[in-house]
Amino acid sequence: MVEESIYNLLPTVAHPESKNDRYVSVFHESVKDELKQKKSISKTMGPAKVSPNDPKTFAKKRGKEPVLPERTQFVRPNADQKKPPVPKIDEKPVMGLKSNKNFINTNAVENIMSVAKKPQPKYVDTPGGTTNNVEDSGLVPKFVKKDNYGKVPKYLETRKQQMEEHQRSYDEYIQQRLERGALNQISAAERQNILDGLKKNWEELHLQYQGLSVVTDTAPKKARKERMEAEMRQLEKDIETVEKHKIIYVTDNF
Length: 254
Known about the structure:
- There is one protein chain.
- The chain is mainly alpha-helical.
- The protein is 39% helix and 5% strand.
- The mean pLDDT is 85.
């Protein structure tokens, strides 16, 4: 609340508030030029100029109605196949024919000699009693009754032959290189020493990796962690390679 004072009666001059200059980006002109370059002509409004319609081809009354084909005489599809004529009034059907066949005995003999039908096996899988055929449910072991059950498929035999041929050709190639002296086979002891050395290096590196800081807030920490992870992955690949191959050959240029 403003206190009452004599000074409030004096006229005051209103000074306009000074405003800062409006911010204008330095990229304003470049953005406008780029927008003009990427702008597609007539993208939403259609082409600038449209060829006008020919004044002679104006719309006429009922011009859009479908054109029906010409009227033709209806012919039934079976007109050439006539039905037998109606019997005449003087034609009488043959009547009085009787058969000596005993239908009761015949039906009884047929039922006695017929084989009883086996009920189709079904199963119920819902509380409401919905039944389904067991034959199509997969519960019947049909596959074990096939002729080729338990036999090796032909494609596996073909694959096995191909693998044997490849292994034979590879063994011949290795034998030729061994005879020339270009390859040297590593002994089992050397292979085991290499494997033990790789595992020992991995354990030492893994021990150093566990001693790293949990928070990698600096570039050197992050680089060291990534380098150690890459070295550990490479050691794991080398160990897997050595364990997978029992026989290892080394070239002279290795």
